[in-house]
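ARCHIVE RECORD
Type: protein–small molecule complex
Small molecule: adenosine-5'-diphosphate
Source of inputs: curated submission
Record status: active
Notes field left blank by submitter.
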Amino acid sequence: MSSDILQADLRARLGTLELELSLKAGNGTTAIVGPSGAGKTSLLRIIAGLYRQAEGRISFGDDVFHDSAAGIFLKPEKRRIGYVFQEPRLFPHMSVARNLDYGARRRGAPPSGARDEIINLLGLENLLERLPHKLSGGEAQRVAMGRALLSSPRLLLMDEPMANLDLRRRREIMPFLEMLHPRLSLPILYVSHNLDEVIRLADKVLVIERGRVFATGGTAQVLNRPDVQQLLAGAVGMDAGMDTDLGTILDASISAHEPEKMITRVSLGDGLVLRVPLRHEPTGTALRLRLHPRDIAIATQSPHGLSIRNSLPGRVNRINVAPGGQRDVSIRLDGGGNIEITARITQGAVDDLQLVRGLEVWALVKSVALASD
Ligand code: ADP
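STRUCTURE (tokenized, with ligand):
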């Protein structure tokens, strides 16, 4: 499929909000996050051509969607965009199969193998003859996703597709999306209030605040930034999932299995290795890990004779006040990768260990959560 780049530089006045931002997205999932009213949905609508009054330029590959200076505005249906909304918006009188084929009929059928693959990936085989009112919320939303994909889009826009689903249904859909996203070689813009979803699905994150870009970059890089964590923690309508603390997000890959010890070694790069309970994925598989600050302890000497198996050398980089008067100590790990992990400890512990910026320490990782668990 395509490897075209979406590029947007736009301005729009939306009531009292001045939207002014630039965005570049290639293949893969870019999550768009930020407080309610920041302009996330408006951004998708402008890209889709559903809001005409914006100024600026939006292009996708060689196609110009919108160029206000040149008077160019490509109609929404000519942009070949798949759009998935919070609610499924299925045609109530049509079966699942006919709903799925609706977009394909309008735009020319996708190759038949692709239709079967999407039906299979979204687990829709047994639902094809049903009418929408016989579907659960999660099933209906999977059909909506399938319908968008079967219209052969070059770009997929998803606006909080799971916001109206309860936790159980979200859990039911997540594995489908996790499988689907890497298989689609097209750019996906995914608006979400749920950081668990973002951590599991996104390759990149764009944080928007009051119509402007607050931060953009790789998922771990952006979500580990203290200012981003602070913005999102205080944001109206943000939902961190089950956790109030985002913790440290690390991109890792499986380097070896040791079944006799029931562990899997995962590499963080720079020769840094963590041991996690035995995994079933093959070596080389990418994993996103989440380290909770409360699960990290600090030692000022190389630890021996400890039950904690994972200790990572580094240096104290920052000490911040955390909620409840605790201290968040950021440790920059040795190696050139600028990996930082945060430990939450008491002020008493900071004093006892005489922690100061630059001090050599070991981060003792008591437990590692995998983003997909
Ligand atoms: P988000 O998706 O980040 O919650 P929205 O894009 O929905 O934010 O809305 C951003 C702001 O723009 C809101 O204050 C909303 O009321 C306003 N807005 C959105 N669309 C329009 C419009 N067509 N006309 C005027 N104001 C709008």
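CURATOR ANNOTATION: The longest strand covers residues 310-321.
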